[in-house]
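Field log, afternoon session.

UNIT: design team B
ACTIVITY: writing a sequence onto a fixed backbone
BACKBONE:
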């Protein structure tokens, strides 16, 4: 849904397209997938990290503010006393959380000023998501997902 809002919510003639919208939504979507993966595989550190990764993303846009509630619940579930038993779980959770935040902020750190005009009007933005930024962010999301899948299941 967030990707659709990003794609359709732009101005007419806006140079961002489907790749940018996908890259914008993918860190949030993969955080949801990782939280389910953490619950299913018995890795609460991954669940907590996915919630912690979403919190800074929510501060960028008011559209994402409602996600603070489920993110907080994921953190509370994952960090409840006695849930993280192995050192590798905490380390993996740290890597997942940093990866999620890094993938999202790769889209925002470089200023890409652009102006455009079309039959529907004209516009200006100080920062758009370029194809390079989108591919870099999607690559980090893929690496985070693969890394989380490689964490051994708790027995």
């Amino acid at each position: 849904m967030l990707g659709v809002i990003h794609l359709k919510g732009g101005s007419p003639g806006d140079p961002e397209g489907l790749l940018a919208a996908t890259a914008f939504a993918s860190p949030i979507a993969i955080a949801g997938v990782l939280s389910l993966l953490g619950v299913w595989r018995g890795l609460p550190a991954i669940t907590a990290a996915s919630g912690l990764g979403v919190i800074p993303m929510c501060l960028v846009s008011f559209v994402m503010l409602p996600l603070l509630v489920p993110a907080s619940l994921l953190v509370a579930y994952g960090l409840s006393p006695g849930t993280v038993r192995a050192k590798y779980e905490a380390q993996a959770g740290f890597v997942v959380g940093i990866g999620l935040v890094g993938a999202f902020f790769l889209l925002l750190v470089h200023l890409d000023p652009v102006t455009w005009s079309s039959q529907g009007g004209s516009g200006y933005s100080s920062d758009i998501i370029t194809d390079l930024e989108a591919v870099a962010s999607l690559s980090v999301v893929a690496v985070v997902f693969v890394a989380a899948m490689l964490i051994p299941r708790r027995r």
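LOG NOTE: The chain is about 60% helix and 5% strand.
NEXT ACTIVITY: expression trials, pending approval
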